[in-house]
Amino acid sequence: MKYPLVSRLLRRNTSTARIAGFILSNFIGLTIVAGALQFYNDARSLWHEEDSFVRSDYLVVNKKVTSVHTLDLSANDFTPEDIADIEAQPWVRSVGEFKKAAFRVNTHVGFADIERHGRGNPSRSSGTLSTAMFFEAVPDSFLDIPLHEWHWTPESPEVPVVISKDYLALYNFGFAAAAGLPQLSGTTVSGIPLALELTSEDGSKRLTLNGRVAAYSKRFNTILVPETFIDYMNEELTDGQHSADTVAQNPSRLIIDVSSPGDTAIGPWLEQHNLEVAGDKSASSAAYLLKIIVTIVVSIGSVISLLSLFILMLSISLLMEKNRSKLHSLLMLGYNPDDVATPYWNIITISCCGATLMSAAAIAIMRAFYLTPLKALGAEGGTFWTTILTLAIMAALIIGLNFLSVYRRVISTWR
User: Fold this and answer.
1) Which of 265, 280, 295 is at the close of a domain?
2) Are 407 and 318 within one domain?
């Protein structure tokens, strides 16, 4: 300050209580806004990781089965009109159809192969485990697995298969324990070769192919193979009108990519159209609720910050009103408007920077408490620069607006 006596003169009537009130309210507002954004940034991976407990952007739906429809196999299929109606809903981004296999599938696994990958019963290693299976396919864009190995052509040596993670748990803790077979990890099962026996519905055609478990899905409670495989084998193994009708059937299940998981409009609409969602979708509601809470918290913090801005503007305005005659006299004596405004600018800058530093410290302490349990839930955590940038932008806006207000008032006093 070029004129320290002028600065001391203009600050004589400064209200410490009002400035403290601004610092406190500004601190609370900045902490709420920047803290909520920092928490969202730290937890955002929970919304984007496929295995996240709150990630659920997809709904697998089917029509409810009633006693009236038990004998009509196509009564619960989705017609093109049904699919168009779903696609027209505002919360739907895209819809995928489950394709059915028009052939029977049997899988054979040798006990020797299982024994080689675990600690089973050696006396049974010469036998074979056989089971009937079913195959479905969905568009690749709806899968929750890496797609670099998810392809099949008639020349491929193996058929990649995706199974539900629940199926592996059922094998390990249900079937394996009862049958005296070893429990297997997902990596181990992926190394066990599968012999797939495909048979047309009338039994006139039969193919034997090699398969392997390529990945495990949490999104689908089914057994998936590539669409190209389903399409090719449906053509290859269909024989007669019945099989042709099976291929041409409408889908009985759909997968919906929703824009707002947990949207309150989804449940009533599905209920009204007699549709049910596969699996537990409480995660969708949790994700939607968390986003709403973050939005509300940021809104409240923004309101408090806005109020603190007005508190400071009012405090400075009252102070300048008390010193109006002094301001006018100084300006008439030839002092520059910037020099007259500088004492008030200093008050604004020091108060706002103090509130900003306090807010950054409070958020850092708060983050130290919640970051460890958040990472235990699978979150990767974000960078603290989010908080620094947010606080810097908000502080710059508050300081800039107050600087402009002071300068305009000084000019109006001069005139």
Assistant:
1) 280
2) yes
Which strands make up the sheet holding 194-200, listed edge to edge? Answer: 99-100, 136-137, 223-224, 159-164, 206-217, 194-200, 103-110, 128-133
Among 235-249, 291-305, 372-386, which stretch is predicted with the lowest mean pLDDT? 235-249
Q: Which domain holds residue 236?
A: 58-280
Residues 40 and 187 both lie in one domain: no
What per-residue confidence (pLDDT) applies to 357? 92
Neighbours of 190 (CB within 10 A): 15
Poorest-pLDDT segment among 54-58, 99-103, 345-349: 54-58
Mean pLDDT of the chain: 75
Amino acid symbol at 312: L
63 and 190, same domain (yes or no): yes
pLDDT tens for each residue of 316-330: 676 666 666 666 666
In terms of pLDDT, which residue wins out, 252 or 320? 252
Q: Are residues 46 and 69 in the same domain?
A: no
DSSP annotation string for 279-336 = S--HHHHHHHHHHHHHHHHHHHHHHHHHHHHHHHHHHHHHHHHHTHHHHHHHHHTT--
**For residue 33, what are the contacts with CB-CB under 8 A and spacing of at least 6?**
298, 301, 302, 305, 390, 394
184 with 304, same domain?
Answer: no
Task: Name residues whose C-beta falls within 8 Å of residue 89's C-beta, 6 or more positions apart in sequence.
Answer: 269
Residues whose CB falls within 8 Å of the CB of residue 326, separated by 6 or more in sequence, listed in order: 9, 10
**What does pTM read for this prediction?**
0.57
In one-letter notation, the amino acid at residue 306 is L
pLDDT at 13 over 70: no
330-336: Cβ within 8 A, 24+ apart: 330/6, 331/410, 331/413, 331/414, 335/3, 335/6
Q: Are residues 132 and 192 in the same domain?
A: yes
Q: Distance between CA atoms of 151 and 163, rounded to whole angstroms? A: 16
